[in-house]
Amino acid sequence: MLYSVLGKTLGFVGFTIQYGCLAHCAFEYIGEFVMCSGPSMEPTITNHDVVFSERVSRHLYRIEKGDIVIAKSPFNPRMNICKRVVGLEGDKVCTSRPSDSFKTHTFVPRGHVWLEGDNLHNSSDSRSYGPIPYALIRGRVCLKLWPPHSFGALSQSPNDGRITPSE
Amino acid sequence: MAQKTGLGRRYIRAFVSGFFVAVPVTVTVLDRLAYVARVDGASMQPSLNPEGASAPDVVLLNRWSVRNYQVQRGDIVSVVSPKNPKQKIIKRVIALEGDFIKTLGYKNRYVRVPDGHLWIEGDHHGHSFDSNTFGPVSLGLLHGRASHIIWPPNRWQKIKPSVPPDRRPLLSWGGSTEDEDDDDDDDE
């Protein structure tokens, strides 16, 4: 009697550990569901949209310019930010706001990326805190799941001219 | 013959199910609980690698204790290099967020470590690629805290946090009791 209860408990604990580990691996290496909040990525992603972020391209270092990524905020690692990659290491990026008359440029240092929100007027991004290390990127947003009428792939950047095409 | 294929199938099934248990469990333990890494280079001499490359130390990195990004001054931590995301570096935490620190060869002589950042330095000044080169690092790059030296066996020991006496922060916020008068503008 005691042995059977013990065996069942052990089996249950084992299954819990096994499925917990499987879930960890899936979320860590395949992808996860993220709910975005905040206005910084409008109109591509609006408040309370649910997106799927895949982790594969981040682990294989295949993040490209124009991708939307989920990254850890450099000033608060418990908070995530959702932005568009505008420059990779070595790229020349424009640091000024679109309304500024003087255009200022800078180069993205090694191992860093330059992130900008699509809503250039209401977004705190690399233009205010500078380039962020590549390792803070958690995943690439590849699919929008909610709301249902906008299900599917994400649109291109609405701001022309921010992303300089690579040769 | 039929018995033999049945036996082989049973072996394959046992192998596959064992594989599906062992690999996720191992990956999760390495990601969440503890990680073992060999220390390369001379940047942490004399705490780590005192004999140079002839006998590299192997350290146990505790990943569970940094899950909430909580470290102390003096801890030896591994972080992902901000200059190369494929590389991890192991350094000592000198200052936490909000501390004022006198730098050794950084572009500014005195630095206030920004929120969510760490100031890390190797113990071997001048032979270390650390915050004096690339500035404060974000807490999100934290990978683990070195808790034990596990190899070579005669150096088996627990690593205690210790700040070099000449590298204490000039002005430190002792704990969370201090009110920082920063203008927080997080508009995410």
UniProtKB/TrEMBL annotation, chain A:
DNA repair is among the record's keywords: no
Broad class of enzyme this protein falls into: hydrolase
GO BP term, pick one: protein processing involved in protein targeting to mitochondrion
Pfam families registered for this protein in UniProt: Peptidase_S26
UniProt keywords, alphabetically: Hydrolase, Membrane, Mitochondrion, Mitochondrion inner membrane, Protease
Domain Peptidase S26: 16-95, 102-146
Localization per record: Mitochondrion inner membrane
GO cellular component, one term: mitochondrial inner membrane peptidase complex
Family indicated by similarity: Belongs to the peptidase S26 family. IMP1 subfamily.
Subunit architecture: Heterodimer of 2 subunits, IMMPL1 and IMMPL2.
Protein name as it appears in the record: Mitochondrial inner membrane protease subunit
Automatic annotation (TrEMBL), chain B:
Enzyme Commission designation: 3.4.21.-
InterPro entries the record matches: IMP2, LexA/Signal_pep-like_sf, Pept_S26A_signal_pept_1, Pept_S26A_signal_pept_1_CS, Peptidase_S26
Membrane-protein topology: Single-pass membrane protein
Region described as Disordered: 158-188
Transmembrane in keyword set: yes
Residues annotated as signal peptide: none
Annotated catalytic residues: S43, K91
Keyword terms of this UniProt record: Hydrolase, Membrane, Mitochondrion, Mitochondrion inner membrane, Protease, Transmembrane, Transmembrane helix
GO CC, any one term: mitochondrial inner membrane peptidase complex
EC class (word): hydrolase
Principal cellular location given in the protein's record: mitochondrion
Gene3D superfamilies per the UniProt record, alphabetical: Umud Fragment, subunit A
Biased composition (Acidic residues): 177-188
Localization per Swiss-Prot or TrEMBL: Mitochondrion inner membrane
Transmembrane segments: 12-30
Coiled coil: none
Sample GO molecular function, one term: serine-type endopeptidase activity
BP GO terms, sorted: protein processing involved in protein targeting to mitochondrion; signal peptide processing
Annotated Peptidase S26 domain residues: 14-102, 108-151
Subunit record text: Heterodimer of 2 subunits, IMMPL1 and IMMPL2.
Family indicated by similarity: Belongs to the peptidase S26 family. IMP2 subfamily.
Alphabetized NCBIfam families for the sequence: sigpep_I_bact
Protein's name according to its UniProt entry: Mitochondrial inner membrane protease subunit
Organism placement in taxonomy: Eukaryota, Metazoa, Chordata, Craniata, Vertebrata
